């Protein structure tokens, strides 16, 4: 089956085609020199007569992709949903930990699946193996047109809000301005991901590291408050925070789990790029085992930090808990918190697009999406059409 690749040459545009010869190796038509030297991996491609992307992601990049996508703006902006629905601090911590354990169990199952089926696409590839093409086809369309674009749109709008707010003072940020900033950052991320896989993973690694520094600032601030003896909001964790929330129903617990699991969303993103992981049988499960417990510990400690300086009622009333925390503890350095939220959302959006582009690529490679989405840039080896399609749906 021929697969097409777009070549953006300096002297103009040319189109090359990756074709398969009798022994299963690849060669590009209409290209020579550098194009042939940097083709997709022959061994993986020869196995199933499908186009495969080059393996470039190591262990650190795998951990950064999971952590960077899971930790977005939610834990900084408004981690109140779990507390509001459970009605007590102790039960809310139990929910946060339980959601982390559930996410880890799901991710470990995906690690097993990812080592058995090394194709990119995560659920799409597993549906193909387990249930056939129809469920995989339906999943690819729903994810490509609704789930992934809406997820990235929400993240980008959060970024736009925190970029615009410092310039409007006490006024409500303009919706148009936030959307324009969101579109701008989406286009910047698109350029990064289309230009180079190494650049996209490098950006993800840097922003994840910066995000973890910001989280450590909040956690260290909370530990300092604990040393000062500010523990009165944590001394009776299972007492109701108010008479109105004296007890939580099963429905409240269920919705609390839903809210908590949304904060852990993204634990499966590494499986979308399995074909690009170096030594996936080792690095895929190890990345999961490192990343998800790390995120769980961060979420629990951040919530502890918030409660060292705010009462549960104050936490529920705050629209941006981390900003309130920064204003109360960091003084003149409180601006670090809005900056941290912007960094966090940028990294999360970058990781989301990186994974979503691979889903488009994997599904179109099987003929379940438009054939053009399986095209790969012949020199940069990035699935540019899939990335552009996903960004277009996100902007819309």
UniProtKB/TrEMBL annotation:
Q: Name one GO molecular function term.
A: L-amino acid transmembrane transporter activity
List every stretch annotated Disordered.
Answer: 1-35
Q: Which Gene3D superfamilies match?
A: Amino acid/polyamine transporter I
Q: Which reaction does it catalyse?
A: L-histidine(out) + L-arginine(in) = L-histidine(in) + L-arginine(out); L-cystine(out) + L-arginine(in) = L-cystine(in) + L-arginine(out); L-phenylalanine(out) + L-arginine(in) = L-phenylalanine(in) + L-arginine(out); L-lysine(out) + L-arginine(in) = L-lysine(in) + L-arginine(out)
InterPro entries to which the protein is assigned, alphabetical: AA/rel_permease1, AminoAcid_Transporter
Q: Does the keyword Oxidoreductase apply?
A: no
Instruction: Write down a Pfam family by its short name.
Output: AA_permease_2
This protein's major location comes to membrane
Query: What membrane topology does the annotation report for this chain?
Result: Multi-pass membrane protein
Query: Is Disulfide bond among the key words of this record?
Result: yes
- Where is the protein localized? Apical cell membrane
- Membrane spanning residue stretches: 57-77, 89-111, 123-143, 180-200, 206-226, 246-264, 284-309, 321-343
Q: What are the protein's UniProt keywords?
A: Cell membrane, Disulfide bond, Membrane, Phosphoprotein, Transmembrane, Transmembrane helix, Transport
Which family is this protein grouped under?
Answer: Belongs to the amino acid-polyamine-organocation (APC) superfamily.
- List the protein's name: b(0,+)-type amino acid transporter 1
Q: Which organism is it from?
A: Cloeon dipterum
């Amino acid at each position: 089956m021929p697969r097409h690749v777009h070549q953006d040459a300096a002297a103009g545009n040319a189109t090359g085609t990756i074709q398969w010869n009798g022994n299963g190796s690849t060669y590009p038509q209409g290209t020579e020199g550098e194009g042939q030297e940097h083709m997709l991996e022959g061994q993986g491609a020869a196995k199933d007569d499908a186009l495969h992307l080059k393996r470039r992601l190591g262990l650190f990049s795998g951990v950064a992709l999971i952590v960077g996508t899971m930790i977005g703006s939610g834990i900084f902006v408004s981690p109140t949903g779990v507390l509001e629905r459970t009605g007590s601090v102790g039960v809310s911590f139990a929910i946060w930990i339980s959601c982390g354990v559930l996410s880890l169990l799901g991710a470990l199952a995906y690690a097993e699946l990812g080592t058995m089926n090394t194709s990119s696409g995560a659920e799409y590839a597993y549906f193909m193996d387990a249930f056939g093409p129809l469920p995989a086809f339906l999943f690819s369309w729903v994810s490509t047109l609704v789930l992934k674009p809406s997820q990235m749109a929400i993240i980008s709008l959060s970024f736009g809000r925190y970029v615009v707010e410092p310039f409007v003072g006490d006024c409500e940020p303009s919706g148009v301005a936030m959307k324009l900033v969101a579109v701008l950052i989406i286009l910047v991320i698109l350029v990064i991901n289309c230009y180079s896989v190494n650049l996209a993973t490098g950006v993800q690694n840097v922003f994840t590291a910066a995000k973890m520094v910001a989280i450590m600032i909040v956690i260290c601030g909370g530990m300092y408050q604990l040393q000062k003896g500010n523990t009165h909001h944590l001394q009776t964790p299972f007492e109701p925070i108010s008479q109105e929330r004296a007890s939580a129903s099963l429905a409240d617990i269920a919705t609390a789990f839903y809210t908590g699991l949304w904060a852990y969303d993204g634990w499966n993103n590494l499986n979308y790029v399995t074909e690009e992981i170096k030594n996936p049988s080792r690095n895929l499960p190890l990345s999961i085992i490192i990343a998800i417990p790390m995120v769980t510990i961060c979420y629990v400690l951040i919530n502890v930090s918030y409660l060292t300086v705010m009462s549960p009622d104050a936490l529920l009333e705050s629209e941006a808990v981390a900003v309130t925390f920064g204003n109360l503890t960091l003084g003149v350095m409180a601006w670090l918190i809005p900056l941290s939220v912007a960094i966090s959302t940028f990294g999360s959006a970058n990781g989301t697009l990186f994974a979503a582009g691979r889903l488009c690529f994997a599904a179109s490679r099987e003929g379940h999406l438009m054939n053009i989405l399986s095209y790969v840039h012949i020199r940069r080896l990035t699935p540019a059409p899939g990335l552009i399609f996903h960004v277009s749906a996100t902007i819309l």
